[in-house]
Structure formats: structure tokens, C-alpha cells
Amino acid sequence: MVLVRFLKRTRRPLKPECNKVVILGLDGLSPHLVEKYWANGDLPNLKKLADTGTYHRMKTTTPGVSPVAWSSFQTGVNPGKHGIFDFLSADRKRYLAVLSSVKTKTFSKKNFLGIRKTKVSSTLLRMSKPFWSLLGRYGIRSTVLRVPITYPPEPLDGRLLSGMCVPDLRGTQGSYTVMAPEGTEHSFTGGIACTLSKHEKGRWKASLPGPDDCDPADIVFHKESGGRWTVRSGGEKLKVNTDELSEWLTVTYMAGRTKVRGIARFRISEGPFVYCTALHVDPSSPVVPLSHPVHYSRYLAGAVGQFATLGLAEDTWALSNGHLDEKSFLNMAWAYYRERKKMFTDALSRGKDGLTVCVFDTSDRIQHMFWGSGTEPGSVIHGMYLEMDRLVGETVDRMKNNHRLVVMSDHGFTSFHTCIDFNRWLVNNGFMVLEKGITTVDESFHGVNWSETRAYAMGLSGINLNIRGREGKGIVEPENAETLMKEIKDRLLALEDGGTKVIRSVKFARDIYSGGYTDRSPDIIPGTDTGYRADWGCVTGGVGANTLYPNLRHWNGDHCHDSDLVKGVLFTSWKHTTESPSIVDVAPTVLSMLGVEPPGYMDGRTL
Ligand SMILES: [Zn+2]
Predict the structure, then answer these.
(1) Both 428 and 536 in a single domain?
(2) Together in a domain, 402 and 422
(3) Are both 155 and 44 inside the same structural domain?
(4) Which residues of 269-291 are buried (b: 16+ CB within 10 A; e: fewer)?
């Protein structure tokens, strides 16, 4: 009887404090820069929001990277309960780095005619529940736009468009294409090359590879007078000026009798040399579900035009590889920003009561790629903060008296000038052993002697012990793990770069995480100091020649450091007195605002 009463009581929402909560997520917005720009009198809208409501630097997750932090945002729990600890997680049996948030299975199935067809199924690996699913139990509707780690889309009472980790048409997390006449040398990461051949009447043609089971699609380029090009594929065409990024072109592939549609943008330079974005899944005819309900992405394409659907849409690889220049990269980033803004505006004007969430990635990508150019007034980064502030101002203008606004980032930003190869460090310190004759490893630990290896690094911030019974070829007895972890910790903390400390903290998973999925985490989480980040190779099981070396890439800002160095921002349109809020506090707070009791398993507090 007590239980029934209890259930009845918890089933009834609390008295709501408002009719609607809007959450504007600005990925990677740094409190240090916000406060610095305030000192110059910039960012008036954020300042006003802080003055009339509350502003804090917000504690992020460990590590402070988007998949982990946004998962804690949406669930209100620590990573031990949602199971996302990095972009990548370790397949411990095979020593392989796999995407942490989505598991994709390919299988063949007979259709009703008895014909075998290849099918792909994807499962979201983020555990626990997003708080909007709890709102739905009380009939409170949500519109959720591009929150990372929402692919594949889960059902909810409302509408959701998936964000980070949505694949492209080739099934990758984003592979672009360069097209050039035969004889041009290409070797690069992040994309593929194909040949541009002379076609009739001065036209050029390329066969653009799409999904595995489809023939490539023909793309024809025709130069007209005045430096303008026509790009055609199937019955679709568009026009674009030389060296400018085009609008979206629909590219159709055939999988048997089924049409598979992608969309891509092109940039054509003299040569000709063509850059083609990753083939984004066409939102108006999605081959994989991008939204809930499935037709929501189609609705959005109708309402705002075609839009980028790939999780990591801004092509940072192409800029790093020199296949896009800074101007085109920024044009792309801002084009995607405008698409997102239109969707957000549409959601704000249509959605009545309930929850509206939208995450903008622009702030993260621009800081990753332009940190090295500085943050002073007049810099690209400064300009981006001014635009984010205008967006905040426009959002505030749309709010009514009984609405509440949250503006937040998942983490901040800092510099990344030096790479640290954790696997090389493990080899040099005797924790990892390579086979005889092997000096460096490209990826996937090929050439590692597992029978003598006690630890290996994988992902952006994790070291795993090679535990007997857990790893495929484990040798460390579980009872010896503790001593080994302490030894690694002490030696990492002593690591210096010409007198400068490299590692600010070393945490053990069992001390900082709690919950049923803690065993998915790396055992040791090193927190690097400002300027230092895991090198590109060791993330996927490579072992380079040097432990420390300069990061010469365009990607020179980052946030995969000790998480205290990269706190995010939290603005609320109402006043609260909670000191040092954390990203896990947002979910219970919004639930309470809308009259729903936060569940006891949530780690966050109500602000
Ligand atoms: Zn982020």
C-alpha cells in the first residue's frame, strides 16, 4: 500500500516553475574567453544574461570531450552510468579502437521474393535515459536538435534530429573526396581520391564512390565563361564560381533497385582540382533514420532547405590536409551554422510548451582549427564569439515571461602545441614491448608483443592494463593491477618537457566513476596540462618514434586535457545560488523546472 502511494506520488509531476525551457548548447564555448571578452565590453547579450540570471564556469566530465560530456548532459549521470568514456572505446579482446557510442552490424536477409539483401543495423551504446524521455512520460513534449550521441535516434514524445556520430553515405564518420586529372599524387587521411577524366566538349567527369554495394555516381563538371562551373549528377545540377563552396547537390546511387541519396558540396579550383564534401545522408530521403519521427528530417529539409546531416560535418581533415583553404573551411562552417540556426528558429516558433534543445558545433570546430591564430579582437575566434553572442540575444528576444533559458557549453578550450605519444612512453618505460625488429607501429598495435606488454593506450585519454582474462592476450594478474597503476601514475606525473610538467593529473576509473558500465572505461585517465594532448597515432593503437613532438597541424586548439582546465560555461535566465555547478546538474534542473521529480539515480543536483 505504501509502495502504491509512493508510486502514485512520484507519478505526479511537481508544480512546474515555467511552461517552457530552451537550452542553447554552444559546443566548446570557453569561460576564459567569455570573461576576457567581457573585460573589453564585448558579448553584451551574454553579459546581460549573466547579470539578470546566473553565470558560472561549469564542471565538465573526465575527460572533457563532447561525447562524454553531452552524454552526461542528457542523462544527468556520470560516465560510469552512461558508458561513454571517449570518442573511441577499446575492444579488449582484439585490441582495436571502436566507436564508443554506436555499434553497427551488417547482415544479409532474404526479402519476400527470397532475394538476399545486405542490411545494416545500428545500436546506440549510450546507456541510461535522456531526460527528455522522462518528460515524455508526463506528456511534456521536446524538440531536440543535434545533441551529440543521439544516433541512432531514440523514440521520444516530440521530435529529435541526431547529431555527432551520424555516419556519411559510405558508413564512415566523414570521408571527403578529391578529384584531379590522372597523374596527381594523393596520400592522405580522412578522405579518398578519384580521377577526373576529360569528357566531351571540354567537360570533366569523375566517378564518385558511394556506399559499398553501389556503383559510383557520375559527376560532370563544365566550365563556363566568367570562371563559373556547372556540376551535374543524374538529373541534378548546380552552378558555382571557381574557388567557392557550392550549395548542396543531390547524388543518387542504386542499391539493386533501391535509390540511395546523398548530398554533397563542391569546390572547384584551377587544374581542375575538385574538393567534394563527405556524402551526407540526404535528409529529405534518408537511407538511415536521422530523426524521430523518421519524417522529421524530411520536414526540416522542406522548411529550411537541404542541410548537413553528418555528425562531424565541418571538414577539419580537408583543412588539415590542405584540400580546403581557411576561407572555404570557414564558409562551410558558417553555412552549416546558418542551416542549424534556421532549424532552431523553426523549433522555437513552432514548439509551444515543453523543451527545446539545440547544439551548435560551430564554436568547437572553429576553435579547434584557429586556436593557433590567436583569440584577440579581430581574430576568427573573436568573431565567432561575437556571432554566438548575437545568437544568444536573438534567442532571448524570443523568450516569454513563463519561459526559461539555459546557455551552456560541454567543455572549454585551450592550446594544443605538443603531442604526447602515450604508447611510445609506455614502450620507453618498459610497460609495453614491441616484437623484435619493430620500432614503430602505424595502428591497431600491429607488432606489439602482448606476452610481455602490461599496458596500452587507446583513445584520446586512456591507458588500459593488459589484464589476464579480460584482454585477449592479457598477462597482468588482477591482484597486481593496483601496484602497476600506481607505478604508471607516479612515472607519468614525473614526465617533463624541458622542465615543464606535461601531466597535471592521473585518475583511476574506479575512483572517479560509479555505475554499472565503469568497466567499459580505460583503467587510467591521464589529464594533460595546457598545450599537451594525446598524439594522433596512439589514439588508434599506433606507436611513434618520439614521446613528445610538436603539433604542426591546423588542429591546434583542444580540450582533451585535465578536465579542470577546460570547464564549460553555464548561463541560466533565472537566479540560483548553487556554487560550482556541474554538467550533470542540467538534467535534474530542467526536469524540476518543468514539474517532474528528478529520478534518484541521477548524479546531478537541481540548481
Ligand atoms: Zn564538445
Answers:
(1) yes
(2) no
(3) yes
(4) eeebebbbbbbbbbbbbbbbbbb
Average pLDDT of the chain, as a whole number:
93
The range of the structural domain enclosing residue 396 comes to: 15-84+126-166+311-407+565-593
Say if residue 437's pLDDT is above 80.
Answer: yes
- pLDDT tens, 180-189? 998 766 667 7
- In the reported structure, the alpha carbon of residue 452 is separated from the centroid of ligand 1 by a whole-number distance in angstroms of 37
Distance CA 78, CA 71 (A): 9
Q: Residue 447 pLDDT > 70, yes or no?
A: yes
**Measured in angstroms, how far is the CA atom of residue 118 from the centroid of ligand 1?**
34
**Reduced to 3 states, what is the DSSP secondary structure of residue 490?**
helix
Q: How far apart are CA 442 and CA 455, in angstroms?
A: 18
Question: Measured in angstroms, how far is the CA atom of residue 411 from the centroid of ligand 1?
Answer: 6
Å from CA of 524 to ligand 1 middle: 22
CA of 410 to the centre of ligand 1 (A): 5
CA of 26 to the centre of ligand 1 (A): 8
CA 88 / ligand 1 centre spacing (Å): 15
Q: How far is the CA of 364 from the centre of ligand 1 (A)?
A: 6
Span from the CA of 85 to the centroid of ligand 1 (angstroms): 13
Q: What pLDDT, in 10s, does the model give residues 308-345?
A: 999 999 999 999 999 999 999 999 999 999 999 999 99
* Ligand 1 geometric centre to CA of 34 (Å): 16
Q: Residue 531 above 90 pLDDT?
A: yes
Q: Who surrounds ion ligand 1 at CB < 5 A?
A: 27-28, 66, 364, 410
Going from the Cα of 462 to the center of ligand 1, the distance in angstroms, rounded, reads 18
Domain membership flag for residue 113: no
* One domain for residues 530 and 433: yes
- Per-residue pLDDT, 298: 97
Residues 203 and 269 in one domain: yes
SS (H, E, C) 417-452: EEEECHHHHHHHCCCCCECCCCCCECCCCCCECHHH
How far, in Å, from the CA of 68 to the mean position of ligand 1? 9
Residue after which a domain boundary falls, among 281, 301, 326 = 281
Number of domain units in the chain: 3
In the block, residue with C-alpha cell 582549427: 369
d(CA 57, CA 61): 13
For residues 130-158, average pLDDT: 96
Q: Rounded to the nearest 5°, which phi and psi values hold at 366?
A: -65, -35
- What's the gap in Å between 313 CA and the centre of ligand 1? 14
Distance from the alpha carbon of residue 368 to the mean position of ligand 1, in angstroms: 10
* C-alpha 27 to ligand 1 mean position (Å): 5
- 463 plus 424 within the same structural domain: yes
* Structural domain contains residue 9: no
Report d(CA 545, CA 528) in Å as an integer. Answer: 20
Residue 116: predicted pLDDT: 61
The DSSP result for 156-210, as a single string, is -SEEEEE-TT---TTSSS--EEEEEETT-----SSEEEEEEEE-GGG-EEEEE--
Residue 305 domain-assigned (yes or no): no
What's the average model confidence in pLDDT over 62-80? 98
Residue 589 corresponds to which cell in the numbers above? 534542473
Whether pLDDT at 212 is above 90: no
Q: CA 14 to CA 140: how far, in whole Å?
A: 13
At 11 the pLDDT is 52
Ligand 1 midpoint to CA 66 (Å): 4
Rounded distance between C-alpha atoms, residue 600 and residue 57, angstroms: 25
Instruction: Please tell me whether residues 478 and 545 are part of one structural domain.
Output: yes
395 C-alpha vs ligand 1 centroid, how far in Å?
A: 21
